[in-house]
């Protein structure tokens, strides 16, 4: 089926780009008046390729220093690119700075919105607990937390706190204050800690319908404090019922956090998405 059959009489097509980026050199995803951001870099390239100002909408507004393995970016493109999305991917990668890489480009159906159409977002957080975590090749990409002397994070405490996250909660006790949002409720479908495959620490994975500003970092920072015996396990349950974040631990560093992926209904794809 041709794109003209899919979108009769339509001159602009919605696209989804799945991108990866090293967030260390950016002030986050969202465009800023003066600072370098991923959105601004991406829109600059889109303007060159589309011949006009083109807005890029990200599924998640990652903070300064946060990385992405599967950020979802929506934008409109012309008929030329609708016929050859693979060429669009190549053109984007040829022009984007080396810290940003487009993994996939999908032609989407009318009505697609990268932020509003998302049904789930998944993040991962890496903690390095061995001495090698201080290496300059690892420190920018994980929370370097060398424990030494045979010490380790209390895995039982981490798993217990993660289990408490699953379900729907009001996260105002574990998110940045003053967030411009109608509500603080998020539905968490998955939250788990597991040893990293490289044996160099722990990895936290969390998936929810939405996330608040600094939410994952507040959650991880508080969990790690509990796992180190700095605060009692019962504190985590109290924070899930709190009306402010005054009792929360400091948020974990941004450079250990990764936006891993975003999910959309399959019927929003013009063609069956490839894994």
Give the quaternary arrangement of the chains: single chain
Instruction: Enter the CATH topology name of the largest domain.
Output: Alpha-Beta Plaits
Q: Note the gap between the termini.
A: 21 Å
Highest-level CATH class of the largest domain: Alpha Beta
How large a portion of the residues is in β-strands, by DSSP E? 25-35%
Tally of helical runs = 7
Series of secondary-structure elements, N-terminal to C-terminal: HEHEEHHEEEHEEEHHE
Query: Radius of gyration over alpha carbons?
Result: 20 Å
| Helicity, as a percent range | 10-25%
Query: Residue-averaged pLDDT, rounded?
Result: 92
Number of strands: 10
Query: Structural class, from helix and strand content?
Result: alpha+beta
Q: Would you identify the CATH architecture of the largest domain? A: 2-Layer Sandwich
| Biggest sheet overview | 10 strands, mixed
Domains (count): 2
Low-confidence stretches: 1-10
How would the global form be characterised? globular
CATH homologous superfamily designation of the largest domain = Pseudouridine synthase I, catalytic domain, C-terminal subdomain
């Amino acid at each position: 089926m041709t794109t003209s059959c899919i979108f009769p009489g339509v001159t602009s097509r919605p696209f989804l780009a799945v991108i990866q980026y090293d967030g260390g050199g950016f002030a986050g995803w969202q465009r800023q008046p003066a600072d370098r951001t991923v959105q601004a870099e991406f829109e600059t390239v889109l303007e060159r390729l589309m011949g006009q100002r083109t807005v890029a909408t990200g599924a998640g507004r990652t903070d300064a220093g946060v990385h992405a393995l599967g950020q979802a970016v929506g934008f409109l493109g012309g008929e030329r690119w609708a016929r050859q999305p693979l060429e669009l991917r190549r053109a984007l990668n040829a022009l984007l700075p080396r810290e940003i890489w487009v993994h996939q480009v999908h032609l989407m159906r009318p009505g697609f919105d990268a932020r509003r159409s998302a049904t789930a977002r998944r993040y991962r957080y890496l903690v390095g607990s061995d001495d090698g975590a201080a290496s300059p090749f690892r420190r920018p990409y994980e929370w370097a937390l060398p424990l030494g002397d045979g010490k380790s994070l209390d895995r039982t405490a981490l798993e217990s706190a993660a289990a408490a996250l699953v379900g729907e909660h009001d996260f105002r006790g574990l998110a940045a204050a003053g967030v411009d949002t109608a509500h603080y409720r998020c539905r968490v479908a998955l939250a788990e800690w597991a040893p990293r495959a490289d044996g160099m620490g722990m990895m936290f994975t969390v998936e929810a319908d939405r996330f608040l500003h600094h939410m994952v970092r507040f959650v991880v920072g508080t969990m790690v404090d509990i796992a180190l015996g700095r605060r009692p396990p019962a504190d985590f349950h109290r924070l899930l019922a709190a009306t402010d974040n005054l009792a929360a631990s400091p948020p974990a560093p941004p450079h250990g956090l990764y936006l891993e992926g975003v999910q959309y209904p399959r019927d929003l794809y013009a063609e069956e998405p490839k894994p």
